[in-house]
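Task: sequence design from structure.
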C-alpha cells in the first residue's frame, strides 16, 4: 500500500577533500525513489538518495538526515558499480577507524559510514563521489504507522517486543479556551515552510466556533499580531480581516522562540492554548535550550498549554524537546511527498483544536510491560502509541487515564492482536531502549545502548552502519556478513540530466577550460548577445572537446568558427576559421554545435561572426565561451561590458553566491550604488543562506534595512555576540526596542 509520508529531512550537506580537513562547496543531495508500505500497524520507508558532485575534484560527501522521532534505521546499502552492497552495524569507533583508513589511503575503495549524532540526527559519509559525478545510497527505516486504528486497540507482537496503538476520542473542549497561534516567520524557515504554517493557522481558526477568541502572531526576533492587542472574536468579519492581514509579508529575521511564546501566552491568559508553528531552534533571545524551556515554562504558568508543531527543516529535535520539557504536545507537519502546502493542514488543525490529556497513564493487559514512560501530555484524537516488552501471552483489556483541563478522564478498550512474530516490532523496541539509555548519558548506559543496537541492527551513538566495497572487503576487515549483497532489480548508474541538447544523460564531464579570444562581428548585432547565447551552449562545446581528450589527454589549442546568422536568426552556415587545435573531428563537432544555435532576429539583416576559443584541460572550475574570470581585480574599475557579463552570470546561475557577490562589488567599484543595492537585495532573495549576501547588503542599505539585514544575518550565526550587539544597536536607532532587547539577550547568552 503506497502512502504519502513525512520524509526524513536532509541538511548540512558538505564535502571533504580526502586526506585533508578542508571542506568545499559543490555537493548536493537529490532524493530519488521513495517507497512506503504499511503492514501490521507499522510503516516502512525506503529512500534512495543521489549525491551529486559539481566540482572537478573527487570528494567525500557528508550530509545529515533527520529521521522521524522513534524511527529505527534498519537498512543501509551503497550502489557500487550497479550492485547494492548491504551494510553492517559495528562499534562506532571501529566503523569510523575503518572508514577513515580506506578514504585516506593512496588507492581508496568505496565505503559509506552512517553515524548517529549527539542530537539524534544521522550523518552519512560516502566516498568517493567522482568529479562531476554522483553516487547512490539506499536507506530504510521503520516507524509506527500514523493512522489511528478504529474501535479496538491494535497490538503488533514481535518475539521480544510489542507495538500497541490505542485510539483516543477527539473530545470537544470542556471549557471555552482562548487560542494564540504563533507562526515562525524567521529567515531560516523559507517561503514554503511559512506558507504551510499559514495554511495550518487558517485551518485552525476555521475550526473555532463563532464567538471563540483567538489571536495570530507572525514572529521572528519579535512578533506582529492580529489583532494588534488583545484577542479577536471568531465571526466572518474577523476571519476576513485576518486573511487581509496575513497577505502582507512579515518576518525574515532571527528566531526568538521563548520571546514568541511569551508574547502569545500574554494574549491568552492562564487557561489558554498557544500553538507554535515552526522551529524550536532559537537564534535570538534565550539561546540555550534549557534557558528557552525555563522562560517558556514561566510564560505558560500553571494552566496554559503549548501545542508545538514542527514546520520546516531547520529544527533538529529542539521543538520536540521543548514540548516535553514544558508538558506540551508535539506534532510534525513537514512536507508530505507530492502534497501542496495546505494538504495536511485541516487534519492537523482538527487535532490541535481537540482536547489534550495531561499526565496520561495506561493499565496494560497482562503479559505486557512498557519499555519507557508515556509522554506528559498527548493530544486526543490521535493514537496513543506504546512500545514495550512481551512477558507472556497478552490477555485482558486496557485503560487509559489522565486529566483534561483539570478534570479526570478514563477510557477502556479491547485489545486485538493484528500480527505476530514481526521482526520490525523488535527493532522498534530496540530503538526505544537505545533512546532511553542514551538519554541517561553515562558511559555504562551508552555501552549498553551500543550492544542493543549491534544485536538488532539499529543505530546508536556508539554503534554505526558501515558499508564496504564488497563482501570480500568485509571479510578482509574481520567483519562477519549477515546478508550477502546482490544486484538491485534496476541495475545501472544513476542518470543525471543535462540542459544541453546532445549531451548524454549520465555523462561525467572532465575539468576543462574554454576561454574566449576576440569576437569579430560583421553586421548590426551586439557582440555580448552572441556571447550570451554561445555561453548557454558551452556544455555541448565541452562535450566535443572531451571526445578529443579521450584520445589525447593533453589536447589543447585554438578553435575558431565562422558562422552566419540569417535574417530569421537561424545559423545558415558554420565552418572552421583557422583553428590550430590538432584534432579536426573536435573542430567539426564544434562547428555542428554552432549550426544548431538560434539567435534573435538581427536588426540589419545577415550577420557574420568569427568566434574563437582557447581550449585547455585544467583542474579548475569549468568556464564557458564569452565568460570573463568571475572576479574583477579590486584595483580596477569594471567597464560596462564586464558588468553586463557578470549580471548575465547571476541570471544563468541564480544560486551561485560567488557570481552575485562579484556582480554587486563590481557595481560598487563602478560607483553605481543604487544598482548595487538592488543587486544585493536580489542576492539575498536568490541565496538566503549565504552570510555574505547580508554582509554586502548591510554595506549599502538604509538604517532601517540595515537593522533587518543584521536581524537575518544573526539567524545564520546565532552565537556571534558582536553580530547580536550590532543588530541591537541598529534596532535601537530605528526605535524597535523589542527586537533590540531580543538581540541584547542573545549577545549576553553568546559570550
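Answer:
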Amino acid at each position: 500500500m503506497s502512502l504519502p509520508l513525512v520524509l526524513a529531512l536532509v541538511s548540512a550537506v558538505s564535502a571533504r577533500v580526502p586526506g585533508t580537513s578542508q571542506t568545499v562547496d559543490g555537493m548536493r543531495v537529490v532524493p530519488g525513489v521513495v517507497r512506503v508500505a504499511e503492514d501490521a500497524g507499522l510503516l516502512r520507508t525506503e529512500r534512495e538518495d543521489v549525491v551529486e558532485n559539481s566540482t572537478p575534484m573527487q570528494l567525500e560527501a557528508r550530509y545529515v538526515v533527520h529521521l522521524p522521532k522513534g524511527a529505527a534505521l534498519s537498512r543501509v546499502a551503497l550502489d557500487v558499480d550497479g550492485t547494492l552492497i548491504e551494510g553492517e552495524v559495528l562499534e562506532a569507533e571501529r566503523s569510523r577507524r575503518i572508514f577513515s583508513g580506506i578514504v585516506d589511503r593512496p588507492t581508496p575503495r568505496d565505503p559509506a559510514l552512517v553515524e548517529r549524532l549527539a542530537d539524534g540526527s544521522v550523518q552519512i559519509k560516502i566516498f568517493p563521489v567522482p568529479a562531476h559525478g554522483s553516487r547512490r545510497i539506499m536507506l530504510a527505516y521503520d516507524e509506527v504507522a500514523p493512522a489511528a486504528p478504529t474501535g479496538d486497540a491494535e497490538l503488533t507482537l514481535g518475539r521480544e517486543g510489542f507495538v500497541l496503538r490505542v485510539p483516543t476520542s477527539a473530545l470537544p473542549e470542556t471549557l471555552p479556551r482562548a487560542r494564540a497561534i504563533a507562526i515562525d516567520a524567521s529567515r531560516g524557515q523559507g517561503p514554503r515552510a511559512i506558507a504551510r504554517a499559514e495554511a495550518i493557522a487558517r485551518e485552525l481558526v476555521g475550526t473555532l466556533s463563532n464567538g471563540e477568541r483567538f489571536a495570530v502572531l507572525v514572529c521572528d526576533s519579535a512578533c506582529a499580531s492580529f489583532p494588534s492587542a488583545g484577542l479577536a472574536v471568531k465571526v466572518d468579519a474577523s476571519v476576513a480581516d485576518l486573511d487581509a492581514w496575513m497577505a502582507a509579508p512579515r518576518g525574515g529575521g532571527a528566531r526568538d522562540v521563548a520571546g514568541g511564546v511569551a508574547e502569545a501566552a500574554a494574549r491568552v491568559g492562564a487557561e489558554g492554548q498557544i500553538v507554535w508553528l515552526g522551529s524550536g531552534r532559537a537564534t535570538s533571545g534565550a539561546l540555550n535550550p534549557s534557558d528557552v524551556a525555563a522562560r517558556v515554562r514561566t510564560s505558560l504558568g500553571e494552566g496554559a498549554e503549548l501545542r508545538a508543531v514542527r514546520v520546516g527543516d531547520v529544527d533538529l529535535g529542539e521543538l520536540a524537546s521543548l514540548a516535553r520539557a514544558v508538558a506540551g504536545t508535539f506534532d510534525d507537519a513537514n512536507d508530505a511527498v507530492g502534497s501542496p502546502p495546505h494538504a495536511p493542514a485541516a487534519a492537523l488543525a482538527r487535532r490541535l483544536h481537540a482536547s489534550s490529556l495531561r499526565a496520561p497513564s495506561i493499565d496494560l493487559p497482562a503479559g505486557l510491560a512498557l519499555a519507557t514512560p508515556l509522554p506528559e501530555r498527548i493530544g486526543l484524537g490521535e493514537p496513543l502509541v506504546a512500545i514495550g516488552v512481551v512477558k507472556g501471552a497478552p490477555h485482558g483489556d486496557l485503560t487509559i487515564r489522565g486529566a483534561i483541563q483539570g478534570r479526570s478522564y478514563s477510557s477502556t478498550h479491547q485489545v486485538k492482536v493484528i500480527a505476530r512474530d514481526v521482526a520490525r516490532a523488535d527493532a522498534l523496541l530496540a530503538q526505544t531502549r537505545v533512546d532511553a539509555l542514551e538519554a541517561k548519558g553515562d558511559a555504562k548506559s551508552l555501552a549498553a545502548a551500543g550492544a542493543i543496537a549491534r544485536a538488532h541492527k539499529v543505530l546508536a551513538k556508539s554503534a554505526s552502519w558501515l558499508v564496504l566495497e564488497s563482501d570480500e572487503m568485509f571479510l578482509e576487515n574481520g567483519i562477519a556478513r549477515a546478508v550477502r549483497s546482490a544486484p538491485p532489480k534496476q541495475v545501472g548508474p544513476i542518470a543525471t540530466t543535462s540542459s544541453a541538447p546532445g549531451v548524454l544523460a549520465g555523462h561525467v564531464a572532465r575539468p576543462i577550460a574554454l576561454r574566449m579570444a576576440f569576437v569579430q562581428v560583421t553586421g548590426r548585432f551586439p557582440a555580448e548577445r552572441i556571447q550570451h547565447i554561445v555561453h548557454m551552449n558551452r556544455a555541448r562545446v565541452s562535450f566535443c572537446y572531451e571526445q578529443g581528450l579521450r584520445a589525447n589527454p593533453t589536447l589543447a589549442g585554438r578553435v575558431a568558427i565562422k558562422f552566419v546568422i540569417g535574417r530569421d536568426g537561424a545559423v545558415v552556415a558554420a565552418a572552421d576559421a583557422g583553428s590550430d587545435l590538432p584534432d579536426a573531428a573536435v573542430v567539426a563537432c564544434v562547428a555542428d554545435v554552432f549550426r544548431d544555435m538560434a539567435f534573435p532576429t538581427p536588426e540589419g539583416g545577415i550577420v557574420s561572426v568569427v568566434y574563437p576559443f582557447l581550449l585547455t584541460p585544467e583542474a579548475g572550475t569549468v568556464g564557458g565561451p564569452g565568460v570573463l574570470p568571475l572576479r574583477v581585480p579590486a584595483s580596477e574599475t569594471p567597464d560596462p561590458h564586464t558588468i553586463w557579463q557578470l549580471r548575465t552570470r547571476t541570471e544563468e546561475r541564480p544560486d551561485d553566491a560567488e557570481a552575485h557577490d562579484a556582480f554587486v562589488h563590481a557595481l560598487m567599484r563602478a560607483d553605481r550604488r543604487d544598482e548595487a543595492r538592488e543587486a544585493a537585495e536580489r542576492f539575498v532573495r536568490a541565496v538566503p543562506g549565504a552570510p555574505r549576501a547580508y554582509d554586502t547588503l548591510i554595506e549599502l542599505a538604509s538604517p532601517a534595512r540595515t537593522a533587518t539585514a543584521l536581524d537575518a544575518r544573526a539567524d545564520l550565526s546565532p552565537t556571534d555576540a558582536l553580530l547580536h550587539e550590532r543588530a541591537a544597536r541598529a534596532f535601537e536607532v530605528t526605535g524597535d526596542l523589542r527586537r533590540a532587547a531580543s538581540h541584547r539577550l542573545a549577545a549576553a547568552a553568546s559570550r
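Confidence is low (pLDDT under 50) at residues 1-7, 335-343, 487-517, 619-632.
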